Amino acid sequence: MVDRRSGPLARDAMAYVLAGGRGSRLKELTDRRAKPAVYFGGKTRIIDFALSNALNSGIRRIGVATQYKAHSLIRHLQRGWDFFRPERNESFDILPASQRVSETQWYEGTADAVYQNLDIITDYQPEFMVILAGDHIYKMDYELMLQQHVEQGADVTVGCLEVPRMEATGFGVMHVDEKDEITAFVEKPADPPGIPGQPDMALASMGIYVFRTKFLADLLRRDAETPGSSRDFGKDLIPYIVEHGKAVAHRFSSSCVRSSRESVAYWRDVGTVDAYWEANLDLTDIIPELDLYETSWPIWTYAEIKPPAKFVHDIDGRRGEAISSLVSGDCIISGGSVRRSLLFTGVRVHSYAGLQEAVVLPECDIGRNARLSKVVLDRGVRIPDGLIVGEDPELDARRFRRTESGVCLITQPMIDALDT
Description:
Layout: E1 13-18, E2 39-40, E3 44-45, H1 47-57, E4 61-66, H2 71-80, E5 91-96, H3 110-115, H4 118-124, E6 128-133, E7 137-138, H5 142-151, E8 156-164, E9 172-176, E10 182-187, E11 201-212, H6 213-224, H7 233-244, E12 247-251, E13 267-268, H8 273-282, E14 310-312, E15 314-315, E16 318-319, E17 321-323, E18 326-327, E19 332-334, E20 337-339, E21 342-343, E22 348-349, E23 354-360, E24 365-366, E25 371-377, E26 382-383, E27 388-389, H9 393-399, E28 401-402, E29 408-410, H10 412-417
Parallel strand pairs: 1-4, 1-6, 4-5, 8-12, 14-19, 17-20, 18-21, 19-22, 20-23, 21-23, 22-24, 23-25, 24-26, 25-27, 25-29
Antiparallel strand pairs: 2-3, 6-11, 7-13, 8-11, 9-10, 9-11, 15-16, 28-29
């Protein structure tokens, strides 16, 4: 049945963000924090992109399901996302795995993370549920996806990326007909199905789903009673709907938010150290593929009260400078040189130090005469005077986490081990 209501659908929707992932491929960056809580872009966290998309789309009820190493994430959400007001029919709920269904049961899968909180969801009585992954970098207007869901009378609408066919082997892939109705859902296929009319392209799932709430609740209850289910949207619920209902693909390119300077539909899974380093450094390009300076679609976050960045000393060989770089508040570049790098809040770069292609998380301190290239520094790392990284691959690999492409991830325990 086609819904002919007037006004935005987002006001009758709840966004539910799945933010419990371990993020183990980010190695030591997720030793103390969940992947959605990892820093990105100079001042934000990864989860801020999904949350900002929901807020900018007009959704005013949001829930965030957390699980592994959630303290850093919960603290960020409490500090940066506490402006929703119940008297305006707004809500923001942080939903740790709290054994609401069973005293011994944590979230068993993505679907179970919603099922265990159905009572909270139904109390708000949203007509639609927008299920989101909390660990991707992109800008998207979910209102357009909601409109397609209603117009096509779908049981589920699945957000999809158009990717080269043989690059889709690591995704859940949609096999669709000419109307983008999903005829099969294949998890990580060796030979992904092509798109009708675009045989060299495939539709890969973004982990974004739209449902009517009542339909989703019934589906989750059925799945919870099904022996052997892995309680997962991609593995269980979506294939069930494809077989027994109507599942429709929504192409990201039709709802991606782009400024006049953005030429591509930008989406990144920054799930590896290399991908994380590359996506951050992409922001230093003269015209980056992701425009964080677009004020009409802001990325909301916890805004720390900090002084401006500062550059001091103007002597040949000892000049505080940053070229093709992003430098956040409370950074002091004191006689050091920063090139094609991204510095988060509170970084100190001391005299004669040099950074090249560096992603430096908050409150790091770079000692005098240090030279670092192609690195990611975890929060609070104190680089000793004279340390050189990025010039001797074998030495780097013995001391730090070095990827196959030559990016070195450096943590404070690695630095402390240099003295032992």
